[in-house]
Amino acid sequence: MARVAVITADVLAERMAGPAIRALSIAEELGARHDVTLISTAECSLDRPRIACRHVSWPHLSAAVAAAEVVIFQGFVSYHAPWLLRGDKVLVVDLYDPVHLEQLEQLRGHTPVERRATHDLTVRVLNDQVVRGDFFLCASEEQRHLWLGQLAAFGRVNPENYDRDPTLRSLLAVCPFGLPDVPAQRSRPAIKGVVPGIGLDDKVVLWAGGVYNWFDPLTLIRAVDLMQVDHADVRLFFIGMTHPNPDVPAMLMATRARQLSDELGLTDKHVFFNDGWVAYDERQNYLLDADVGVSTHLDHVETTFSFRTRILDYIWAGLPIVATGGDTFGTFIEREGLGVQVAEGDVDALAAALTRTLYDTGFAELCRTNVARIRPTLTWSRALAPLVDFCERPARAPDAASDARRFVRRPVMPANPLLRAANRAATLLRQGGMGLLAARLAARSRRVMRERRGG
Hints:
It is built from 19 helices and 15 strands. It is of the alpha/beta class. The strands form 3 sheets. It has a 7-stranded parallel β-sheet with strand order 5-3-1-6-7-8-9, sandwiched between helices. A 6-stranded parallel β-sheet has the order 12-11-10-13-14-15, with helices on both faces. Strand 10 (203-207), helix 9 and strand 11 form a beta-alpha-beta unit.
């Protein structure tokens, strides 16, 4: 039995987004065999059997994971806790979200200096992780190609790692998002007959998940506008417009979606927005009140390496799926007969696809049958099997002792906290001037206040 710490900077609470859900699922899967502590540096109010769930602020994180043999983390955890990269623990780096590609679109409205500074910082954080990690996780074979290139660029595709395993899957494994072992089960109605304006017999198109800048809700709203001329009972429901993590900024695309719906006179008639965020343990009720699940996105580089976790929710609930092609799931949906794949920005094709899945009962039933067939192959236990195997015999990567460069890529920060603060301030000023420094100080102040309120 290994002592494992799973760390996320996302909120672990009743309402959770993808990073927190993934961290929780990893902890629960490993908790059946190991001594697992799940840690959020933002907020934690969860209580789960077999695992310890904790909120730990950044200054106390080192002590909280001192006894751990294996540390699994994601995102910017190593930036706020750089000592992880300088220590000798077995580090599992979860690279399922290529955030540096998301930021290319997410930060479009920001100043050029801020975009460059933020992107450069993110790439540096990822590179530091690639240099130091002992085992890496990604979400798809497409992503694996991306991260293999980055590992190769930093010398990690080397004789020591290759001789242990020429496939390098013992260094970089595909561990996608997964599904619960049990299919979704309704505990109460959530949309039909509950949301004002949506009746029991209406046809509901569900957008599960947030509305981010790399998605395309605008084409979808225009398609619904076309459909409602002949199908007065069509309803589009956006499940969550406000991210549960206050550090995640509001997205321009979410604002544009509301504006377009208002302009077309669809809001609260054919298009509905849930202003909050659905509780994790309640999401099945919303999914099971829908007739089709939808995901539309733009053709960006992020699309090529994305893994749309909302598609998994649709499969869990047995829904036919309509989605834009170009990503991992587009081809999968078409190949397995789960629904319809459409081209980016094609309003007419999207309207036709939704009409078919909503009103062609034979086709919809065939899609549901195929979804039920594929669902058992996508459970968390299958998705995380490579990680479970690794944690049975956790070890440093073969090149850990042979390549001293892995430990000196970033200069050691001064021990004096005042000197460290001055060092970081100087870096921010150099990257983005007073505007960037002020923005980072404001974000830090908000984080400190939340930590104090949470005790």
